[in-house]
Amino acid sequence: MSTTDAAAFWDGVHAARPAAAPRPNARLAETVTGLPPGDALDLGCGIGGDALWLADQGWRVTATDISAVAVERLAALALAGGLGDRVAAVRHDLHRSLPPGGFDLICAHYLHTPFDLDRASVLRAAAHALRPGGRLLVVDDGSTAPWSWDQDPGVRYPGPEEVAGELGLDAATWTVERADSPTRTATGPDGRTAEVTDHVLLIRRGRPAAARRRRDTPPPRTGSGEAEVLRGFLDYLRTSIAAKVEGAAEPQARTARVPSGTNLLGLLNHLVSVERALFLGEDVTDWQATFQADPADGVADVVARYRAAVERANDVLDGCADLGAPIPGTRPGRPAPSVRWALTHMIEETGRHAGHVDILRELIDGTTGR
Prior knowledge:
The protein has 370 residues and is α/β, with parallel strands linked by helices. The protein has helices at 3-16, 26-32, 49-56, 68-80, 119-128, 160-167, 226-245, 264-280, 299-318, 339-365; strands at 39-43, 60-65, 87-91, 103-109, 130-141, 174-180, 183-187, 193-205. Helix 7 runs parallel beside helix 10 and helix 8 packs parallel to helix 9 (299-318).
């Protein structure tokens, strides 16, 4: 069935429910109470009881659902409750992707659907979107409540250990902090109560052993000449940024971690274009497009292309004895900057993006150091 079918189904489910003030799920409240607020992602938010409660506790919440009815109701409730600046209600199809960004908490409560959804892939991607120290809370039905949309008597409810196993997460990085099946008395949307079982899985992301802090490489020792200093520091930054991108996992390396869409692999791909344009005279017609690597290129491909561009640029610079002279290879019809200006600009450009890359790589797997 299509995304349109799924959206129409869930629009109908939410439209049929009373427009009462939503309540947070009990397992969320007992898990999150006491944690320092940060950035949270609510997967399949429904009408938003969890998102509103989290925002009221000081969290910044991105709440997603495929249903426009649910998202519009949540946005209105957040605004009415003075929480509009803390809740971003977004209509999003998890079958395609997760919203961009890194998160301190991701929750998925009763994320079941009669439509095609690779739930394990969604939850695995969610685990990778956690910042170091962040938590993924998955709460599933362990029994059928009288008000559930799915009353199939033959439905099977996988336990939390089975769900954790399906995700295939590296135990060196992710720790299962809770996996149990408690019962509680629940109240449905129509006011009925029933004894229900919850399957609760709580996973915390730590820092993998392979991502321990690398010893910082100190600034280069260069000669006293201006050209030696400029080129020495430029090569220092080039080496550092390539090493920081190298070995990053896919697809996290090309996944946006901030709303602007900035991603690790895209930054290095952009620097390839800057090196080629500045030192080799290549024309770039769409600079914004350079911030996205070609889908066919992996991390190793872009790193190799960057190192090759740097080698060719250095070949050009080896022939530039006068820092005040125009940089060779400038495109016809455009004034040529001096070699000094080109080197200084490249140091500024590479250093700026090296800082971005430091943060993005730490968000991906905890790797730090230069």
